[in-house]
Amino acid sequence: MRGKLITLEGIDGSGKSTVAEKLKKNPEIKAFNPIFTREPTRGTLTGNAVEKAIQSDTDQLAELFLFTADHAEHLAKLIKPALENGKIVISDRYSDSRYAYQGITLKTHLENPLEWVKDLHRSWTIVPDLTFLFDIRPEISIERCGKRGEQSKFEKLEFLRGVREIFLKLAADDPERFIVIDASHSPEYVEKEVVKKIQEFLSRN
Ligand SMILES: Nc1ncnc2c1ncn2[C@@H]1O[C@H](COP(=O)(O)OP(=O)(O)OP(=O)(O)O)[C@@H](O)[C@H]1O
Ligand SMILES: Cc1cn([C@H]2C[C@H](O)[C@@H](COP(=O)(O)O)O2)c(=O)[nH]c1=O
């Protein structure tokens, strides 16, 4: 039986990685023996290229192709084999981040970047079975990222406003797949919500 792909999405600082780490230790989630992964991937040729690109003044179109190449490698080497083996895969960021972030960064290059990036993926990507959108106001995101000490070029208020808007549109357009979580709550509250929804989803499918 094919496995299930669950993804965590949201703007910088929305708490995805914090909850992902909690899920890894959560006994109710460990019982499903899931594989945890992320995009951009880490420690791979494509993931390393992405990491360098986002830390420099890379052309936005080049950056999109690097993120997309990393996605292709992620699918081929981890996601597809895991799903074919019936595994549950939980990814901290995935294609919806590309639609939301590059849907904004490519506004200078393309007329309708969101649709163009979605079309670029349509014929070969794997659509997640369930996606959690960690939704917070960009002001909170910036505040949290500030406390975290690192500042990526994407962590800018107006930019994140646009990214959040696309995430919410993606969720509104696909209510069967998306669960929007109010990520302004405590990490414990968010973890509990996510665990409950994953259990409900896996018991139905
Ligand atoms: N629910 C929360 N309430 C308050 N602070 C939080 C919460 N979740 C995470 N944080 C803090 O906010 C910062 C960002 O959290 P985290 O790295 O989990 O976010 P993220 O969504 O993975 O961000 P990015 O996508 O930029 O990696 C961290 O310093 C973390 O400790
Ligand atoms: C997958 C993906 C990510 N991004 C952006 C989002 C973040 O600002 C950075 C790095 O992600 P991390 O979770 O902080 O490690 O990259 C993007 O622009 N496009 C994508 O496809």
From TrEMBL:
<keyword id="KW-0808">Transferase</keyword>
<dbReference type="GO" id="GO:0004798">
    <property type="term" value="F:dTMP kinase activity"/>
</dbReference>
<comment type="similarity">
    <text>Belongs to the thymidylate kinase family.</text>
</comment>
<keyword id="KW-0418">Kinase</keyword>
<dbReference type="GO" id="GO:0006233">
    <property type="term" value="P:dTDP biosynthetic process"/>
</dbReference>
<dbReference type="InterPro" id="IPR039430">
    <property type="entry name" value="Thymidylate_kin-like_dom"/>
</dbReference>
<dbReference type="GO" id="GO:0006235">
    <property type="term" value="P:dTTP biosynthetic process"/>
</dbReference>
<keyword id="KW-0545">Nucleotide biosynthesis</keyword>
<keyword id="KW-0067">ATP-binding</keyword>
<dbReference type="Pfam" id="PF02223">
    <property type="entry name" value="Thymidylate_kin"/>
</dbReference>
<feature type="domain" description="Thymidylate kinase-like">
    <location>
        <begin position="8"/>
        <end position="194"/>
    </location>
</feature>
<feature type="binding site">
    <location>
        <begin position="10"/>
        <end position="17"/>
    </location>
    <ligand>
        <name>ATP</name>
    </ligand>
</feature>
<keyword id="KW-0547">Nucleotide-binding</keyword>
<protein>
    <recommendedName>
        <fullName>Probable thymidylate kinase</fullName>
        <ecNumber>2.7.4.9</ecNumber>
    </recommendedName>
</protein>
<dbReference type="GO" id="GO:0006227">
    <property type="term" value="P:dUDP biosynthetic process"/>
</dbReference>
<dbReference type="InterPro" id="IPR018094">
    <property type="entry name" value="Thymidylate_kinase"/>
</dbReference>
<dbReference type="GO" id="GO:0005737">
    <property type="term" value="C:cytoplasm"/>
</dbReference>
<dbReference type="InterPro" id="IPR027417">
    <property type="entry name" value="P-loop_NTPase"/>
</dbReference>
<dbReference type="GO" id="GO:0005524">
    <property type="term" value="F:ATP binding"/>
</dbReference>
